[in-house]
């Protein structure tokens, strides 16, 4: 009798495992063929943005500790202004190199992240918008600039260490993600694309990660902004420009397609925003700092107002 009971238990366990394998294969089949529903709910999106908000606060807090420690105990060694980009900055008397302006420009980008995330959590909580998620991806690229701050505070720009390369690749990841987020807002936010939001965002992050790890970095050449020089520098900047222009043109096409000027206004506001972002990336002087800060926040406010108006109208 005990032998029969053992066989019965083994047979039941075998049937259970077989059914689980069949179910798993069905799930994998549905996922592979795009039939499995992974649509993000408002609650999930709100939770992820809240996690990012908390992470940004922690990052800023740790950076503040590093700044205090470097300022009072080690002393901050300014980055060399031997290599500046754009190159005309060195010849223009209105844009003299200033290490304080450089530090402030980085802090403007980094400190803006939790402030903007709070606005998203406060005023976009109940708005089903793909644009919000890709815009949060752009904010990730802004937060990545905190690595430049650490590079300057601890004098990593004077070294050839692996830590310097690590910081450089994170910054590079953010600079690839920024234009990709912009183009994703215009091309991947259509109603038929919303059910694939997680997949599209994952692809954007994966592409940014791949190229950030692939592109060669030159630790022997540090720009005046605290960023390492890279291989194919001109090609990289050209591709960024093409992506931004393509995204803006796409917003014009969407405006004409849907006969709704809000798409165009959102495209213009985000174009102003990203121009402010790139100006702050190059801001090693007070003129670029002032222009970048003004355009960055003006574009951000206008973009969020247009986005809120668009979904409230719908």
Write the layout of secondary structure elements.
Elements: H1 2-32, H2 42-74, H3 99-123, H4 130-143, H5 146-153, H6 162-187, H7 197-214, E1 217-222, E2 228-230, H8 233-258, H9 261-281, H10 286-313
Antiparallel strand pairs: 1-2
Features:
314 residues, mainly alpha, two-stranded antiparallel ribbon, 3% strand, globular, disordered N terminus
Mean pLDDT: 82
Report the end-to-end length measured between terminal Cα atoms. 70 Å
Shape annotation: globular
Spell the H/E element sequence.
Answer: HHHHHHHEEHHH
Secondary-structure-based class equals mainly alpha
- Return Rg in Å: 24 Å
> What helical percentage do the residues reach?
over 70%
How many runs of DSSP E, i.e. beta strands? 2
**How much strand content do the residues show?**
under 5%
The description of the largest β-sheet is:
2 strands, antiparallel
Low-confidence stretches: 1-12, 14-38
Number of helices: 10
Strand order of the largest sheet: 1-2
């Amino acid at each position: 009798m005990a032998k029969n009971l053992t066989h019965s238990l083994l047979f039941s366990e075998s049937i259970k495992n077989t059914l689980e394998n069949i179910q798993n294969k069905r799930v994998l089949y549905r996922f592979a063929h795009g039939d499995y529903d992974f649509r993000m709910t408002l609650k999930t999106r709100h939770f992820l943005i809240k996690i990012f908000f908390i992470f940004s606060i922690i990052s800023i807090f740790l950076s503040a500790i590093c700044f205090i420690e470097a300022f009072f105990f080690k002393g901050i060694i300014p980055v060399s202004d031997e290599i500046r980009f754009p190159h005309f900055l060195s010849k223009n008397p209105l844009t003299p190199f200033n290490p304080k302006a450089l530090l402030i420009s980085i802090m403007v980008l980094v400190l803006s992240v939790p402030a903007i995330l709070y606005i998203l959590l406060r005023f976009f909580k109940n708005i089903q918008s793909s644009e919000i998620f890709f815009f949060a991806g752009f904010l990730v690229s802004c937060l990545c600039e905190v690595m430049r701050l650490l590079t300057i505070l601890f004098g990593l720009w004077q070294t050839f260490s692996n830590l310097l390369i690590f910081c450089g690749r994170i910054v590079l990841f953010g600079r690839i993600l920024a234009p990709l987020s912009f183009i994703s807002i215009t091309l991947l936010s259509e109603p038929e694309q919303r059910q694939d939001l997680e997949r599209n965002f994952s692809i954007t992050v994966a592409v940014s990660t791949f190229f950030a790890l692939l592109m060669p970095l030159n630790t022997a050449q540090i720009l005046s902004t605290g960023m390492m020089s890279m291989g194919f520098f001109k090609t990289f900047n050209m591709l960024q420009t093409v992506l931004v222009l393509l995204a803006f043109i796409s917003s014009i096409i969407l405006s004409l397609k849907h006969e709704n000027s809000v798409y165009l206004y959102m495209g213009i506001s985000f174009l102003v925003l990203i121009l402010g972002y790139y100006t702050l990336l190059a801001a090693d002087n007070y003129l670029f700092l002032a222009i970048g800060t003004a355009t960055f926040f003006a574009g951000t406010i206008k973009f969020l107002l247009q986005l809120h108006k668009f979904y409230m109208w719908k």
